[in-house]
Amino acid sequence: TRRVRTRDLIAAKERGDRWPMLTSYDQYTASLFDRSGIPVLLVGDSAANNVFGYETTLPVTTDELIPLVRAVVRATSTALIVADLPFGSYEEGPAQALRTAVRFMKEAGAHAVKLEGGRRVAAQIEALTGAGIPVMAHVGFTPQSEHILGGYRVQGRGDAAEEVIADARAVTEAGAFAVVLEMVMGDVAKQITKELPIPTVGIGAGPDTDAQVLVWQDMAGLREGKAPRFVKRYADLAGVLGDAVKRYADDVRTGEFPAAEHTF
Ligand code: KIV
Ligand code: NA
C-alpha cells in the first residue's frame, strides 16, 4: 500500500465516496487508526486541549506540535498526515506562513498543513501551494478566533451564510485541496459541498459534506464531561481505562499483583 494523496481525496469526491478523518497526536492511536483505514489523520492544534491541558487552542506552539506530528508520521504507512498551523504562526503573512509550514514538512515529515480562515488567509494559502505544500483550509467556526467570534457558536446562520460561502470559495480559488467546515449550518454546508470541486470535511456541519472529522478523544469517550452536540461517542474509554487503573491499584494494595507468573 502507498500513502493517500490529495488527488485521491478529490477523486473520491468525484466518485461520491465519503471518507472519515480523525485527529491523532501519538504513536499508538496513529498506528491503530491507520490500520483501521482512516485515510487522513490530523495532528490538530486541538492537542492544546487534548494533550497539553490548555483551556483554548491559542497557547500551543509550533515547537510543541512538531514532535507530535513526527510521531504520527512515523507510526503510519497509508494515511495522509495533516499538520495544523497553530495560532500566531501564520497570521503575519505569506512569508511567516511559509516558514512555519516548511518546518512541519521538513522537521516532522507532514504531508500537508491546515490553517484557519477564509478570505483573510488566501494569500498564505497561495504562497504555500506555490511552494509545493498542500493546504487544507478551515472556515466557519475557527477555534483560534473564539474570542472575536464570541465562543463556540454555529456560523452561517441567516445572512452570515454568504460570509461562509465567500470564505469557502476564496480558499478553493487560492489552491486549497480540501476545506474543513466547522459548526456551519447544515444547509449551507450542503450548498458549499455541491458547489466546490474540492472535498469538504464537516465537523458539526451536518450529513452532506464529503468527509467528516472528529477529535479522537471525543469520539472514543476518553474526554469526560458534556461533549458538543456534533460529537457521537463510539466507546467509553474513560470508563474502560478508569476501571483498569482501579483494578491495578487494588491488586497492588492487596498483593494480588505481581503474581508468580510475573516474577523472575
Ligand atoms: O484541531 C483540530 O482538531 C481541528 C479539527 C477538529 C478540524 O482543527
Ligand atoms: Na485545529
Your description of this structure?
With 264 residues, this protein is of the alpha/beta class. The chain has 2 domains: 228 residues, Phosphoenolpyruvate-binding domains (TIM Barrel, Alpha-Beta Barrel); 29 residues, no CATH class. It is built from 11 helices and 8 strands. It has an 8-stranded parallel barrel, surrounded by 7 helices. Helix 4 packs across helix 5. The longest helix has 18 residues. The protein is globular and about 65 Å long. Bound molecules: 3-methyl-2-oxobutanoic acid (KIV) and sodium ion (NA). Sodium ion binds next to loops. The site of 3-methyl-2-oxobutanoic acid has 11 residues, from loops.
Spatial ordering of strands, largest sheet: 1-2-3-4-5-6-7-8
Which range best describes the helical content: under 10%, 10-25%, 25-40%, 40-55%, 55-70% or over 70%? Answer: 40-55%
Number of domains: 2
* CATH fold field value of the largest domain: TIM Barrel
Order of helices and strands: HEHEHHEHEHEHHEHEEHH
Overall shape: it is globular
Helix and strand composition category: alpha/beta
Q: N- to C-terminal separation?
A: 42 Å
Number of strands: 8
The count of helical stretches stands at 11
Low-confidence stretches: none
Can you tell me the CATH architecture of the largest domain? Alpha-Beta Barrel
Sheet-strand content, in percent, reads: 5-15%
Largest sheet: 8 strands, parallel, barrel
Pathway: Cofactor biosynthesis; (R)-pantothenate biosynthesis; (R)-pantoate from 3-methyl-2-oxobutanoate: step 1/2
Catalytic activity: (6R)-5,10-methylene-5,6,7,8-tetrahydrofolate + 3-methyl-2-oxobutanoate + H2O = 2-dehydropantoate + (6S)-5,6,7,8-tetrahydrofolate
EC number: 2.1.2.11
Cofactor: Mg(2+)
